[in-house]
Amino acid sequence: MTPPVLVLSGPLTRDEVSGPCDALRALLDGGGGGGGSGRVVVCDVAGLGPAGLAAVNLLARLQLTARRSGGRIRLRDPSPALCALLDLVGLRFEVEGQPEQREPPLGVEETVEPGDPAA
């Protein structure tokens, strides 16, 4: 089942978080995202504009809203600057198209070179 998508656009001000949080809550409560504890909403952040603290604030609040509703969010098309800023402040988000952190990427295999000691 394809998760619902919440399209976020900017530029943002620090106080513009209640509308997107309400929209996210409605998507999660509306049965979107597969139901149960695995409910996911994809947040399309391509239109947010320049990465800044307003975007970080919004995404942190959306993540908190999702968790309180028993779901989670996944980012679509974050800019490299936004990813770097989120990493700098210590916020971790699942990004669409990237493997989950606990799973190795598909097609990557560990190899052992002849003469390497056994681990």
Task: Walk me through this protein's architecture.
The chain has 119 residues and is α/β, with parallel strands linked by helices. 31% of the residues lie in helices and 18% in strands. A four-stranded parallel sheet has the order 1-2-3-4, covered by helices on one side. The longest helix has 16 residues, at 53-68.
Describe, in short, the structure shown.
The chain is an alpha/beta fold and 119 residues long. Helices cover 31% and strands 18% of the residues.
Please describe the biggest sheet, giving its number of strands, its sense, and whether it closes into a barrel.
4 strands, parallel
Coarse morphology: globular
Beta-strand content: 15-25%
The parts where pLDDT drops under 50 for at least 5 residues are 32-37
Strand/helix succession: EHEHEHE
Number of strands: 4
Helix content: 25-40%
Number of helices: 3
Structural class: alpha/beta
Distance between the ends: 41 Å
| Average pLDDT reading | 82
How big is the Rg? Answer: 17 Å
Lateral arrangement of strands in the main beta sheet: 1-2-3-4
Protein topology:
Blueprint: E1 5-9, H1 18-29, E2 39-47, H2 53-68, E3 71-76, H3 80-88, E4 94-95
Helix pairs in contact: 1-2
Distinctive features:
3 helices, 119 residues, four-stranded parallel β-sheet, alpha/beta
